[in-house]
Design brief:
Strand content: under 5%
Helix content: over 70%
Radius of gyration: 17 Å
Largest sheet: none
Number of strands: 0
Order of helices and strands: HHHHHHHH
Distance between the termini: 40 Å
Number of helices: 8
């Protein structure tokens, strides 16, 4: 990862995505609702870092900008990695197949990094960490709501539960119950 350009969004994503339950929850939303995990992370990063809120029009423009890269590069690398992992390759040495899968996984990660830089380029200014934490939490959840609108999705209880690990990891100083309440999760 040393050849990746450093960026606050990338650093945030690595930290948050690596937290307990976040990867599984984001991937579940990717499968169930066809979300782009980088866009989920962007929505939360913008709010958590004090960079503000998205509008439907702005997010739709961002989605249109990254869609070709996502479809032609990221998704193709992901499909190739999955095909190698799930395929039956008689006569091919397993260690060679695994090495090929790892290299494609590295290429997929590099493609995700490029996409993140494309998205983050629209916020070159520093965030406002002095903004009250609850305002930043509302902004992050609001951004996720804008993304749901762009996807044509009405979030249900399962979606809110899937978002909980992501939002909780982005706001580690808040009590989990506060995050649940903000997401509309009933106790």
């Amino acid at each position: 990862m040393s050849d990746f350009l450093p960026h606050p969004f990338w650093n945030f994503s690595l930290e948050v995505y690596g937290a307990d339950g976040v990867a599984a929850s984001c991937l579940a939303l990717q499968e169930r609702r066809r979300t782009n995990v980088n866009v989920l992370l962007l929505c939360v990063w913008l709010g958590a870092s004090g960079r503000g809120t998205l509008t439907v029009d702005r997010l739709k423009a961002l989605l249109a900008e990254v869609e070709p890269w996502q479809a032609e590069i990221v998704q193709r690398a992901r499909a190739m990695r999955r095909r190698i992992k799930d395929g039956d390759w008689p006569g091919a040495p397993p260690e060679t197949i695994e090495a090929a899968r790892r290299r494609i996984a590295e290429a997929e990660l590099a493609a995700e990094h490029v996409e993140q830089l494309m998205l983050a380029a629209h916020w070159p200014f520093p965030g406002d960490r002095d903004r009250p934490l609850h305002q930043r939490l509302r902004a992050a959840i609001g951004n996720l709501g804008v993304y749901a609108v762009c996807l044509g999705v009405t979030p249900d209880a399962r979606d809110r539960e899937s978002l909980l690990p992501l939002v909780a990891a982005a706001f580690p100083t808040l009590h989990r119950l506060e995050v649940e309440r903000a997401l509309g999760i009933e106790a």
